Amino acid sequence: MRLPPIGYEAVMTEIAVLTPDPSDPSYAGQWPGVLARLSEAMAASGLTATPTAWTDHIEDASGLMRYPLVLPVIAWGYHRDHGRWLQACATWAAAGVKMLNPPSVLAWNSDKSYLGRLAEQGVAIPPTLWTDHPTQADIDAAFDRFATDVVIVKPRVSGGAWKTLRLARGEALTDAPEGPAMIQPYLPTIETEGETSLLFFGGRLSHVVNKRPVPGEFRVQVQYGGGYVALPEPPAKALALAEKTLAAIGEDLLYARIDMAPDADGGWLLMEAELIEPDFYLASAPEGGKRFAEAVRARL
User: Fold this and answer.
1) Fewest Cβ atoms nearer than 10 Å: which of 97, 111, 142, 206?
2) 222 alpha-carbon distance from chain centroid
3) Among 31, 104, 122, which residue's Cα sits nearest to residue 73?
4) What pTM does this model have?
5) Residue 162's pLDDT is what?
6) Coil, strand, or helix at residue 20?
7) Backbone φ, ψ for residue 205 (5° rounding)
8) Across the strands, what pairs with 199?
């Protein structure tokens, strides 16, 4: 093995990682850990992850132009500041910031109405009623339309199950999401089989994680007690749906997390294609960090 000459120092490539607004305490206990795992994986490939709040670059992208690549993978909180998020995406696109995923993708993927467009291309999603503002009449109509006694109501712009409701027939709608929303029949399989996420880096499957809620809960996120377990292989039908979803999206993606759940008949339904700031679940699948870093390296 040849040793580097005396005085040699490995040259690290500095990559910007967009993070939450530092004045927002909502994620203060979570994102530093996510950044630490990501930074460790990137450092092993000669990459330095430099955190910078996405809210510091909304009107002026000059602070991002010096980086060979900007990763928006921890830009949490955009769903509560959607107008400024869209403004930021436009700013970054106009300035030509070297960002992956691209700012144009970050904009359209922030509104879950994209699920309807994917459905038009043959991607299986849960039956969905779209509304500009959910009302009790909308909820009552959804029970009959979907022939179900339990529905899910979620904002079209959301994250981490924010303002997502589970309502049973006869239950009054309270604390309704403001603005455009979607209503879907509840999938009981979430409680028994969970939600499965397929992580793709550079267009290739990296790892698979199954997420399950605690008893009595329907939200699988860790902040609600959800448990995450890496799977050795994806279910075949789930992989087929994920690949069909990526083909329908047809974008140049560095990373994608495809979330899906089985229905009562054994088919798979797309719940979300997370292309903005997905948790890669590196705590459950640490080998995925190396694959992500390799995909980043390949783009530099």
Assistant:
1) 111
2) 14
3) 31
4) 0.92
5) 75
6) coil
7) -65, 130
8) 207, 257
